[in-house]
Design a protein that fits this description.
The chain is mainly β and about 150 residues long. It has one helix and eleven strands. It is elongated. The termini are far apart.
């Protein structure tokens, strides 16, 4: 069976303890996998962590769940071949840490009708044929990875 290895660095301002690692397959849609690293702030913990983890599917996102009375979620950035988690890009909800924006900026011979998201993973930018040119600058917020972007 094929394994997917990721390297993860975690840097906190306050000491924390690792409580577990979980792979959320097909979350929040059928094409997204999330590696979730669970931490709790603790005076007995440490500020920096380094992990090498193997998964049976490739994670699209790496997120730290951090508990300190409240829970918040911080999405990792990808830097120099590794995922780096800092206390930034955080949200009180896991879904907030998985949101991203896709922008269509183009001039097209047609009329722009808007966009649709199908099955939570396919973004359609809809056009109708016309003799005029329409310039579009539309941003769509999606949750997780997308399967594709289509112009129709």
């Amino acid at each position: 069976m094929e394994r997917y290895r990721i390297n993860v660095e975690v840097h906190f301002a306050s000491p924390a303890e690792l409580e577990g690692i979980e792979l959320l397959k097909k979350y929040p849609n059928e094409v997204t996998n999330v590696a979730l690293f669970r931490f709790r702030y603790s005076e007995h913990g440490r500020r920096d962590f380094h992990f090498t983890e193997d998964f049976d599917v490739s994670p699209d996102y790496v997120v730290a769940e951090i508990r300190d009375g409240d829970t918040f979620y911080c999405r990792a950035s990808f830097e120099d071949g590794r995922f780096v988690i800092r206390e930034e890009n955080c949200s009180p909800l896991l879904e907030g840490a998985l949101k991203r924006r896709i922008t269509l900026s183009a001039c097209v011979n047609g009329t722009y009708l808007g966009h649709e998201i199908e099955r939570g993973s396919i973004v359609y930018f809809l056009f109708e044929a016309s003799n005029g040119t329409t310039c579009v600058n539309d941003t769509v917020e999606v949750l997780g990875r997308t399967r594709g972007y289509l112009l129709e």
